[in-house]
Amino acid sequence: MGELPVDINIQEPRWDQSTFLGRARHFFTVTDPRNLLLSGAQLEASRNIVQNYRAGVVTPGITEDQLWRAKYVYDSAFHPDTGEKVVLIGRMSAQVPMNMTITGCMLTFYRKTPTVVFWQWVNQSFNAIVNYSNRSGDAPITMGQLGTAYVSATTGAVATALGLKSLTKHLPPLVGRFVPFAAVAAANCINIPLMRQRELQVGIPVTDEAGQRLGYSVTAAKQGIFQVVISRICMAIPAMAIPPLIMDTLEKKDFLKRRPWLGAPLQVGLVGFCLVFATPLCCALFPQKSSIHVSKLEPELRAQIHEQNPSVEVVYYNKGL
């Protein structure tokens, strides 16, 4: 068997990202929780394989499947724009186990105000880490900006949850079970833009099809953040809408009445089952390498691109996750 050729495009995902199926296969790999079990040495080895290959140096004896595996291990742990290693719980591979636990607890402990406040705070703290870790672009954000965004987003989420909880006091118990979902959906609209406010101020990098950077665009940032908000809300629907319906039925049965301690683990398990599929499928709703027509960009950037690259009609950007 000969040496692996150096013309495999590992800058892009392995599967066709113009189709939903291709994006779904890509994100099932990216969000695989097993990537969390990889050691630092394994991550570094994958990074070396990928960076060497991009530089035209092929690791001896490596196969194409092993190269793609290294690429996805590398992508699972390192930011695509900055190259920094992402904190463990901020990685997309942590989405299912972390959200399974947090969402399950939000759905289980929704009756009392202190537990509502605690779990909404935990959830938004986790979301803040994920949103920052998977932001688009490489523009720095100060600790002051990060702190302000975190406090504002968390306060908004908790206030939303408590407000909705007070409105459902006189409604059927089943309605109360959906308060966590409504709060999470509303909080995503607050948390994501706030944690990525730097992008809305200075823009995110836009490139041509070959990856050549053309400038920074706030318009692209707005479009990317909007797509991420939609994906996150859709991601929460199965995990926060289906288990409450099932649990409302099961809690009326003798089996759970005699074993109330089974309620929380059962709910967490149901949430986890939904998230295993909802997380990658909803991430796949929009291409991570999104595009926008030059005519929709800011006038200054549009003029700059037309002057330097008159043939470019569409630019590309990383929308973040």
UniProtKB/TrEMBL annotation:
The chain crosses the membrane at residues 266-286. GO terms for biological process: one-carbon metabolic process; serine import into mitochondrion. Its main location: mitochondrion. It comes from the Eukaryota. GO terms for molecular function: monoatomic ion transmembrane transporter activity. It catalyses: L-serine(in) = L-serine(out). It holds the Pfam family SFXNs. Keywords: Amino-acid transport, Membrane, Mitochondrion, One-carbon metabolism, Transmembrane, Transmembrane helix, Transport. The keyword Transferase does not apply. It is found in: Mitochondrion membrane. GO terms for cellular component: mitochondrial inner membrane. It is a multi-pass membrane protein. Mitochondrial serine transporter that mediates transport of serine into mitochondria, an important step of the one-carbon metabolism pathway. Mitochondrial serine is converted to glycine and formate, which then exits to the cytosol where it is used to generate the charged folates that serve as one-carbon donors. PANTHER family: SIDEROFLEXIN, SIDEROFLEXIN-3. Belongs to the sideroflexin family. This is Sidoreflexin. It comes from Cebus imitator. The gene is SFXN3.
